[in-house]
Amino acid sequence: MLDQITIQEFSQTLSQPLIMPFDAGYDEGRSVWNGMVDKRPAMISNCKNADDIKKCLNFAQHHDLLVSIKGGGHNVAGKAVCDGGLMINLSQMNTVIVDPVKRTVRVESGATIGELDRETQKFGLATPVGIVSKTGIAGLTLGGGLGYLGRKHGLTIDNLISVELVTAKGDLISANETENPDLFWALRGGGGNFGVVTSFEFKLHELGPEIMAAQVFYPIEDAKQVLKFYREFTSNAADELVGNAYVLRVPPADPFPEALQGKIAIALVVCYAGSLDDGKTALEPLENFGNPILRVIMPMSFLALQTIFDQGGPKGVRSYWKTHYIDHVSDEAIDVFVNHTTHIPGPLSVVGFESFGGAINRVEENATAFPHRSASYVFGIYSGWTKAENDEKIISWTRELYDKMTAFASGGEYSNYLDHDDSDKIRASFGSNYSRLQHVKYKYDPNNFFKINQNIIPNPDL
Ligand SMILES: Cc1cc2nc3c(=O)[nH]c(=O)nc-3n(C[C@H](O)[C@H](O)[C@H](O)COP(=O)(O)OP(=O)(O)OC[C@H]3O[C@@H](n4cnc5c(N)ncnc54)[C@H](O)[C@@H]3O)c2cc1C
Whose CA is nearest to atom 6 of ligand 1? Predict the structure, then answer.
C-alpha cells in the first residue's frame, strides 16, 4: 500500500498534480465512453509530455502498480481505465501539426479524430480515420483504423509514417520503416502492447473539403430488398465509395418526420471520396431505389459527415458490441439478420454492414500486424441503451444475433471492436501474426507491464 507522502512527492514531480479519488475531476477523468464501465484507479495523471509519461511508468514499475492508458476513452471494453492502478490520461496532449507541402501530419496521441480532421481539412487534406469524431486517434490507429476513406487509401495504419513512444523501460524512441522496424510493424495493428505512444505521423491525401454523401432511410419492412440492393451497390463499387447499411432508430430530430422519429428503420450511409462529379454519378442508383422515408444525397463537407453519428453514440451510453468479418452478404444472411433486427432493442443500438475491401485488401496479411484484410464487410452489432435494468436483455439479444451470424462470417475479429468478455478472441484478432507479435512484445515489454489492452503474451520464440 502506497503512503500519502510517497504519492505526494511523486505528484510534485509531474507537470500537473495527480488526481486522487477525493479530488474534483476524478470521476470525469476515470469515465470512459461505455457507461457500463465503472472502474476506480488509485490515481490519474494528466500527462502533458513524454517526460510526465516516463515518470509515471517508472513510478508504476517501482511500486508494482497496474497502468492503463487513456487516449480518447472510446474502447468499448473500457481498457483505458483500471481498478486500483495508475491511469495515464493523454487528453491534454492533442497538438496537431500539418505539413501541407510534404502532405504529412504529426498528431499527439491524446487527440481525437475530430481534432485531427479539423486541422487537415483546413488544407483540403485528410488521412483515413474512423467515423465518429470523438474517438481517440491512438487506440483507433494502434488497432487498425477503419472509416470512409478505407477503400481508397487503406486503414489508418496503412498511412502511418512513424510513431514516437515511451517504452516500458522509460526510453523515448521512434519507430518507422528504418528505425526499430520490428516495432513499427507491431504498432500497426498490435494495439497498446508496446509502450505509451506520444505522437503519430501520417500521410495525407487530397480530399474535399466537400464530398458527395448520402443518407437514405427506408422503412424496416423494406429491409430485405434494401440489403439486396446494398449488396449489389457496394460489391461493384469503385474504391472511392464506402457504403454502410444500418438498422437503427430514426433520430429524434429534423429533418426526420416526427411520426417516424424513434421508429426502427434501415439506413444506407454512403461517402464518395473523390470528385463531386464522379460522386454524383456513383450515387445515382441511390436516387432511384425504393421508397425511402428520407433521402438526402448531396455534396457535404467531409467534417460534417464525420460527425453525423456523434449524437447517436454519446459518452456514457451503456454499450455492448459483437462483430464479424463477412465476405459475402448472402440471401440467407440477410434473412437471418432481418428476422432478428426488426425488434432491435436499445434506443441507441446500431446494427449492420460496413464496407471493407479496396485498398485494405491490397496489403499483404503479414505486411503489418493487422491480419484480416480479405473480407468485404465488417458486420457490427453496436448495442446501446441507457437503463441498467435492460443490461441482461440487450446483452443476450446481441449474443444471440452474433451467434446466428457466425455461420456467414469469414473468421477473425477486429481487435478494436472486442468487448470486455472477448479475451478468448484476442488471439484470433491477431490471426497469423500472433507469434511474431509475441516475439516483438518480448523484446519491448518482456514482463508484460502493459497488460490493460488486447493483451499479447510475451514469448521470445518465433
Ligand atoms: C462511438 C465509437 C465509434 C467508433 N468508430 C470506429 C470507426 O469508425 N473505425 C474504427 O476502426 N474503430 C472505431 N471505433 C473503435 C475504436 O477504434 C476503439 O474503441 C479504439 O480503442 C478507440 O481509441 P481511443 O484512444 O478512443 O481508446 P481508449 O479507450 O482511450 O484506449 C484504448 C486502448 O488503446 C491503447 N492506447 C490508447 N492510447 C494509447 C497510447 N497513447 N499509447 C499506447 N496505447 C494506447 C490502450 O491499450 C488502451 O487501453 C469506435 C468506437 C466508438 C466507441
Answer: 130
Kindly state whether residue 456 falls inside one of the protein's structural domains: no
Stated pTM of the model = 0.97
Q: Yes or no: say if 160 and 202 are a contact pair by the CB < 8 Å rule.
A: yes
**pLDDT tens digits along 331-360:** 999 999 999 998 899 999 999 999 999 999
Give pLDDT tens digits for 184-211.
Answer: 999 999 999 999 999 999 999 999 999 9
C-alpha cell at 368: 503489418
Which three cell numbers, joined as nine digits, stand for 177?
520503416
Is the same domain home to 215 and 301? yes
Question: How many independent structural domains does the chain possess?
Answer: 3
Give CA angle at 391 (388, 392), nearest 5°: 140
Does the Cβ of 132 fall within 6 Å of ligand 1?
Answer: yes
Asked if residue 181 and residue 42 are part of one domain, the reply reads no
- 437 lies in a domain? no
Ligand 1 pocket, residue 216 CB under 6 Å: no
Pair 380, 417: CB distance under 8 Å: yes
Domain span at residue 56 reads 4-89
Task: Check pocket membership of 69 for ligand 1, CB cut-off 6 A.
Answer: yes
Q: Does 127 map to a domain?
A: yes
**Judgement on whether residues 217 and 345 belong to the same structural domain of the protein:** yes
Q: Is 71 in the pocket of ligand 1 (CB under 6 A)?
A: yes
Measured from the Cα of 417, ligand 1's closest atom is 15
Which three three-digit cell numbers place residue 317? 451510453
70 alpha carbon – ligand 1 mean position (Å): 9
